[in-house]
Amino acid sequence: MVPKISTLSGYLHEYQKSVANPIGFWSNIAESFHWRKKWDEVLKWDFNSPNVEWFKGGKLNITENIFERHLFSRYDQVALVWEPNDPSEKHREYTYGELFSEVKSFANVLRSHAVRKGDRVAIYLPMVPELVIAMLACARIGAIHSVIFAGFSANAIAERVEDASAKIMITSDGGYRGNKILNLKDTVDEALKSCTSVQSNIVVKRTNQDVAWKNDFDYWWHDEVDKVMDEAPAEILDAEDPLFILYTSGSTGKPKGVLHTTGGYMVYSAYTFKNVFQYSSGDIYFCAADIGWITGHSYIVYGPLLEGATTVMFEGIPSFPNPGRYWDIIKKHDVNQFYTSPTAIRSLMAEGQQWIEDVEMPSLRVLGTVGEPINEEAWHWYHDHVGGNKCPIVDTWWQTETGGIMISPIAGVIPTKPAFASLPLPGIQPVIVDNEGNKLCGKSVEGNLCVQFPWPGIARTLWGDHERYIDSYFNQYKGLYFTGDGVKRDEDGYYRILGRMDDVINVSGHRLGTAEIENAINEHPLVSESAVIGYPHEIKGKGIYAYVVCNDIPSDSGEELKNSIRKGVSKMISPIARPDKILFVQDLPKTRSGKIMRRILRKIAEHNEDYGDTSTLTNPDIVNDIVKAAKLLK
Ligand code: PRX
Questions:
Q1: Whether 189 and 283 share a structural domain
Q2: Domain for residue 155, yes or no?
Q3: What residues make up the domain containing 532?
Q4: 162-215 pLDDT per residue, tens
Q5: Domain boundary among 456, 487, 518
Q6: Do 168 and 273 belong together in one domain?
Q7: Residues enclosing ligand 1, CB less than 6 A?
Q8: Nearest residue to 301 (alpha-carbon basis) of 62, 3, 2
Q9: Is residue 623 part of a domain?
């Protein structure tokens, strides 16, 4: 088990050590794991090329570190608690022994479908236990999983499956989400029409609904598992062999296939999980994220299971059957650590006090938030009403690309401040730079958040596109990893994340590239051009505001056209990318080089009339027209 920091002086000491001697610091933590062969070199790196390798030459399998390493002590301990969407359905529990057996069986299914080390497996599943089993089965045989969030459309799935050339798809007949049923198999069928790499589709039976079926291509999960044994030797991998790809939005149109490798990700997800949440053996930990995003990968699946934790996964949504659902789950399973998003907190807060007023959750010890800045009001509500004034809140800042938490309080160890992610974890060396790349030293500074030294969980590349990796993270400021976020460091050295500095909008904690949404809007036959920006939204953090230029601006309010644009975006990407506000305009404010002045559009959306210098616009008059129209928009 990885070492745990338990005092503030312990943190300061570990932090100093991790900066003075990162090699010694991380190799000591890596020693806690089971390696078939020790590494030849702890770290090789260069942020200029860039290239990062951790524990190179080390041989291991991450599932041996989840299962074999714990098996004697934890065979009968519950590893995974699955809480279904409908509270009247019975929850399921898997001990480490049972989960291991399921993983090995499914590893054999994958092998029987000719999946081998290095092959890519696309997984488009709702929050059912088979999702965890499928991921770990891939890891068992050295296949690279690529989980696609079950809210994505056929078009978005196809784009991701094709980019990764996935050999196999794993999906389900359908999925439950509140009182809705998602037709996952239909969506996958549509997506796979254009994906030639996929050779079979393995389907979990969840909703029992009728689905179209293609013999010798579609296979029921339960039938396939019946045909195989539950013994499956682990494929032994190099520490730098890929573990998974996870697609995320960037500032240009195409999603980025963020690649994480085996050894470093293992060490980093386990270390950060144990320390940030102060997990102790026997605790019940509940992360309410979706496994389709990095939070679920690192802090529902890998981090907790590597540390022998009991991890709760929830199929449904916080408002079903009523807004007290999270509290019911916490009470039912005696949850000790609870981790969710600021959007979930704000939406539950907006539902009113009655759902939380008389709720007692004595088991709760730690609360966490992730994915977006948390405003002070939501922080206090979470602290006072959910945590009963006794649970520290860990506001965890990190990214798909960082693999694990980077800046965060360590629960009960680092004092918290509302809306501050606080201090860097050991091993993390943040720097703040101005737009010219000058490092802003000292306290009370604000600028672009970069990291100057590698940590084991850093993404190694973007699948199939190392150039874009360089361009996205290392070209802005020489020798530094640029996060894309703005940040403020206060007089205590505490970090407050201000939000994205690039063309990415963080909507309810989901990262969406403006270019991706614009491309989808522009597909509409009546649209000639569009510009999308984020604007402050009470619940979602940021809402999506689309300025749309049409061939003919509708003479009425244009509701019909707006709906059809929104439908198009849902179809191309996902309902989460639907614009909240659409404003039809004659033209967009552009510079002489044809660049859209988003700064002005942001100000208009915020009703802030200080537009700055507009003299470089080719069409300055358009600003007044847009302002007038924006004032009338509901
Ligand atoms: O802008 C930051 C925001 O979410 C971005 C990363 O998004 P994603 O890769 O989808 O990962 C989300 C889950 C780790 C960051 O660049 N973000 C994440 N955590 C916080 C945050 N913003 C403010 N405070 C946080 N705690």
A1: yes
A2: yes
A3: 508-632
A4: 999 999 999 999 999 999 999 999 999 999 999 999 999 999 999 999 999 999
A5: 487
A6: yes
A7: 248, 293-295, 370-373, 395-400, 421, 483-485, 497, 499-500, 506, 511
A8: 62
A9: yes
CB atoms within 10 A of CB 75: 13
Q: What is the spatial distance between Cα 221 and Cα 42, in angstroms, rounded to a whole number?
A: 40
Residue 40, classified by CB atoms within 10 Å of its CB into exposed (0-12), middle (13-18) or buried (19+), is exposed
Hey, which of 276, 298, 370, 458 would you mutate to test ligand 1's pocket, going by the most ligand atoms within 8 Å of its Cβ?
370
In this structure, is residue 422 part of a structural domain?
yes
- Tell me, yes or no, whether 2 lies in a domain: no
Same domain, 321 and 410: yes
Residue nearest to atom 13 of ligand 1 (CA): 371
Ligand 1 atom nearest residue 499's Cα: 1
**Substitution candidate for ligand 1 out of 375, 422, 485, 495 with most atoms within 8 A of CB:** 485
Do 355 and 444 sit in the same domain of this protein? yes
H/E stretch holding 451 reads strand 445-451
Per-residue pLDDT reduced to its tens digit, 493-515: 999 999 999 899 999 999 999 99
320-363 residue pLDDT tens: 999 999 999 999 999 999 999 999 999 999 999 999 998 999 99
Distance CA 119, CA 168 (A): 9
Torsion angle of alpha carbons 279, 281, 287, 291, nearest 10°? 110
* Residue type (1 letter), 596: I
**Residue 619 CA to ligand 1 centre (angstroms):** 36
Q: pLDDT tens for residues 594-629?
A: 889 999 999 999 988 888 888 888 988 899 999 999
Identify the domain boundary among 429, 453, 487.
487
Look at the chain and report how many structural domains it folds into: 2
For residue 112, what are its two tokens? 């029987």
483 Cα to the center of ligand 1, angstroms: 10
Which atom of ligand 1 lies nearest, measured to the CA of 289? 13
Pick the atom of ligand 1 nearest to 510's CA.
10
